[in-house]
Specification:
The complex is a heterodimer. Chain A is 74% helix and 0% strand. By secondary structure, chain A is an all-alpha fold. Chain A has one domain (67-305): Orthogonal Bundle (MetI-like fold), CATH 1.10.3720. The longest helix of chain A is centred in the first third of the chain and has 38 residues, at 8-45. Chain A is globular and about 70 Å long. Chain B has helices spanning 2-11, 13-22, 24-42, 60-63, 70-76, 79-111, 116-127, 134-145, 150-157, 171-199, 203-211, 216-227, 229-241, 249-254, 260-263, 266-276, 280-313, and strands spanning 53-54, 65-66. Chain B has a two-stranded antiparallel sheet with strand order 1-2. Classes of the chains: A mainly alpha, B mainly alpha. Chains A and B meet through helix 2, helix 5, helix 6, helix 7 and helix 11 of A and helix 1, helix 2, helix 3, helix 6 and helix 7 of B.
């Protein structure tokens, strides 16, 4: 220690030895803070209902119970909502990728005469938005898409950011690929589907993840357009409604919770937590495997223009 | 480049149509989406007219009465609208400052990790909240910040407080709660871009600095931080352009009548007056005001960044 402090070089060595340990501890703490609320929710979902109202549950259920899951899994509305959520996610993602990647290819061709014009029109959408009410009036009053499944699919078919990510990736592919196919007589549509599209798998995986997560997680479209139609509710919208009922109890004092003596096996809180777990698992299963793709995807998106 | 294309197009109209005809396949691939965007992104702008009308859904845009700037005058005479501007700016500023600092610090810490496995693990874990929906995140926040939740328990056990704090029921906490929840949700995700910038720094610089006797903190200060400066500036510009977007979901879901004076943002104001109270004209005016300010902010920030860059270049 004495020697380490003696010279600046010694100081550096000490810095080099202590810093990694401190750094590791800080990062482990950050991971703990990140995971705590998630694990806490899991613990609540496996806890008995009335007991959960007392709060104070940490990382482990206090009174273990599977009742919340049983009650959810016997509820037809949950299955219906899960089906709506899953099907709209798949449809949105497929349609979005189809149109966005084709457009990205067209706009990556330097010889295309409409390239500049279309690009400007598209990029402006990232900065100028008509706002909630005009959008609502268009979709609901003019196009009459409310109270229909289509409102989940049609208005979400395009995102300029994703288009730029794909276009940047295509621009990075060797031009000779396209040129040689051209010489062999292939048109742009064939070049795209047979040569470029298969090469774009990494970036398409990234964009698919973005689109799918967005579609899976949205609740506002249901609220705005399909609020009156129970058979079109999504999982996230069910959660949103549960959230409203638990809001009050989150603010309530402990005594009121204890006053509830009639033992119910499930309460809105445990039900909500159980639905949360069910709605989160699909994402948890997918995203770690796509990590290396989306990390490069983000970097690509940042070098737009 | 744009000039030459435009010149060629204008100079030779026949040539333009002939080329376009030859490129019909590219047209098929791009024009459907162009029409789609014109309808869904530009079409609604027609609705901005309602901002100047006493809009009645039955009469439509063509039949409703024009009232000039009355909607805007009405808005700015209302305390709850002015309050929602204040709340929007306060929360977006808190989000921007806390979010930027937190993600740069986390990126610096991650950048110093030598063990790839550990680094990847930390990254995977901290990306997780980004993928959770706001409904889920707010649900978790309800548990965490509840009067019997872990934060209150911790503070009481440490003896900091005697009575539990009603985090969710007192307006004074609301902005900061939103700020911290947003950091929790997005900090890992936002490091991606900074880490990408850090890995593009030439390793020779670090080696040279080591030879010169620079320690870890000097390397961070004189190499890493200057290396991510341009990324920082670009993100700052984009974020300043979004200062009017304090988010909408989190305030809507986390807020309650108890904290409304602090939780109502412009977006929620628009939703309340437009959808619930069906005062379309007023709500559109509020939304339009937001968009206009956002565009002005974007251009202002962009000009500022250009000036800054010039001064640092010279």
């Amino acid at each position: 220690m004495k020697e380490a402090n003696y010279t600046s070089k010694g100081n550096k060595i000490r810095q080099d030895r202590v810093f990694p340990i401190v750094n590791t501890i800080i990062l482990i703490l950050i991971m703990f803070i990140t995971l705590y609320p998630v694990l806490n929710t899991v613990a609540y979902s496996f806890n008995e209902g009335t007991d959960a109202l007392r709060g104070n549950i940490g990382l482990w259920p206090r009174v273990f119970s599977l009742e919340s899951y049983k009650s959810i899994l016997s509820d037809k509305a949950v299955y219906k909502a899960a089906w709506i959520s899953a099907s709209k996610t798949v449809l949105t993602t497929v349609l979005n990728l189809f149109w966005t990647s084709m457009l990205a290819y067209a706009l990556s061709r330097k010889e295309y005469v409409l390239r500049k014009f279309i690009t400007v029109v598209m990029v402006l959408t990232m900065y100028v938005n008509a706002g909630l009410i005009p959008n609502y009036l268009l979709i609901s009053k003019t196009l009459h898409l409310s109270n229909s499944y289509l409102v989940y699919i049609i208005p979400t078919m395009f995102s300029c950011f994703n288009m730029i990510v794909i276009r940047t990736y295509i621009a990075g592919l060797p031009d000779a690929l396209v040129e040689s196919a051209r010489i062999d007589g292939a048109g742009d549509i064939r070049v795209f589907w047979q040569i470029i599209f298969p090469l774009c798998k990494p970036v398409l995986a990234t964009v698919a993840l973005f689109v799918a997560v967005g579609a899976w997680n949205s609740w506002f479209d249901t609220y705005l357009y399909n609020g009156g139609k129970k058979e079109l509710y999504t999982l996230q919208y069910l959660l949103k409604m549960k959230l409203a009922t638990t809001q009050a109890s989150a603010n309530a004092a402990k005594s009121t919770a204890e006053a509830l003596t009639s033992a119910t096996k499930t309460t809105p809180i445990t039900i909500r937590c159980a639905i949360t777990v069910i709605a989160t698992v699909p994402i948890l299963v997918v995203y770690p495997f796509l990590q290396k793709y989306f990390v490069t995807g983000i970097a690509l998106g940042s070098v737009k223009e | 480049m744009s000039k030459t294309t435009a010149g060629r197009v204008q100079g030779n109209k026949k040539g333009f149509w002939r080329t376009l005809g030859r490129q019909w396949q590219l047209v098929i691939m791009s024009v459907p989406m162009l029409l789609y965007v014109l309808l869904f992104n530009y079409g609604p702008m027609w609705g901005w007219i309602t901002a100047f009308q006493d809009y009645k859904p039955k009469l439509g845009i063509t039949g409703s009465k024009f009232v000039g700037l009355d909607n805007f005058k009405w808005l700015f005479g209302r305390d709850d609208f002015l309050q929602s501007i204040r709340n929007t700016l306060a929360m977006s500023t808190i989000n921007l400052v806390l979010g930027t600092i937190a993600s740069i610090v986390l990126a610096l810490l991650l950048n110093e990790v030598m063990n790839t496995m550990f680094k990847r693990t930390v990254q995977t874990v901290t990306y997780l909240p980004h993928f959770l929906s706001m409904v889920i995140v707010v649900g978790m926040a309800q548990n965490i910040f509840a009067s019997t939740g872990p934060i209150n328990t911790l503070l009481m056990n440490m003896g900091v407080i005697k009575q539990p704090i009603f985090f969710l029921g007192e307006g004074g906490y609301f902005w900061w709660l939103v700020g911290f929840i947003n950091v929790w949700k997005e900090v890992g995700w936002n490091t991606i871009i900074y880490i990408a910038a850090m890995t593009s720094i030439d390793p020779c610089l670090y080696e040279a600095a080591s030879i010169d006797g620079a320690g870890r903190f000097n390397k961070i200060r004189y190499i890493t931080l200057p290396g991510i400066k341009s990324t920082f500036v670009i993100l700052l510009i984009m974020n300043i352009g979004h200062l009017m977007e304090a988010g909408f979901e989190i305030q809507y879901l986390l807020g309650s009548s108890l904290v409304m004076d602090f939780s109502q943002t412009i977006d929620i104001f628009v939703l309340k007056y437009g959808i619930s109270k069906q005062q379309y004209g007023v709500a559109t005016a509020a939304g339009m005001f937001k968009s206009i300010v956002a565009i002005i902010l974007l251009f202002a920030a962009n000009t500022m960044a250009k000036k800054l860059d010039e001064s640092t270049l010279i």
